[in-house]
Design brief:
Strand order of the largest sheet: 3-5-1-10-7
Largest sheet: 5 strands, mixed
Distance between the termini: 76 Å
CATH class: Mainly Beta
Radius of gyration: 23 Å
Number of helices: 2
CATH superfamily: Immunoglobulins
Number of strands: 10
Shape: elongated
């Protein structure tokens, strides 16, 4: 900058100090892929019949399974926890998870399963949730 600007109190350093920036908290991406295997007679469930809800900050926080397979979720670093809710008429199912997430239990979520895992800042991790539908109640 020229001498006139410096006389008025402006220079590159003072401009940077005045503008200052607030650091953005680090986030990570958890990609949730949903697969449904319909083994029960007449079962025709799709990934969109299953609901996911995070208990810690995430974007999106609640969403349906994606019929095209995967949903990218922005999560804060550290431990993540989400619940998967199965459709109302499903009374028997098996669930399998990829290495990107861990099964917790059925008791904390009687209508599905509770899932958690850990993720590092800036990491992208894939969690595949596969439900095999073995029994349904006809409504």
């Amino acid at each position: 900058m020229g001498k006139d600007n410096e006389t008025k109190g402006f220079n590159d350093q003072s401009l940077n100090a005045q503008q200052g920036s607030t650091p953005t908290p680090p986030t990570s991406t958890l990609i949730i892929c949903k697969t449904v295997i319909n083994q029960a007679s007449g079962a025709t469930f799709q990934p969109s019949d299953f609901m996911f809800t995070f208990s810690n900050p995430a974007n999106p926080c609640t969403f349906e399974g994606n019929n095209d397979r995967c949903t990218a979720v922005t999560v804060a670093l550290g431990t993540f926890t989400f619940a998967e809710f199965v459709p109302q008429f499903v009374t028997g199912f098996a669930v399998l998870f990829s290495s990107g997430c861990d099964f917790v239990d059925f008791t904390s979520n009687p209508n599905g399963v509770l899932v958690n895992g850990t993720i590092a800042p800036g990491e992208t991790r894939t969690c595949t949730v596969t439900n095999t539908i073995t029994m349904v109640i006809r409504g």
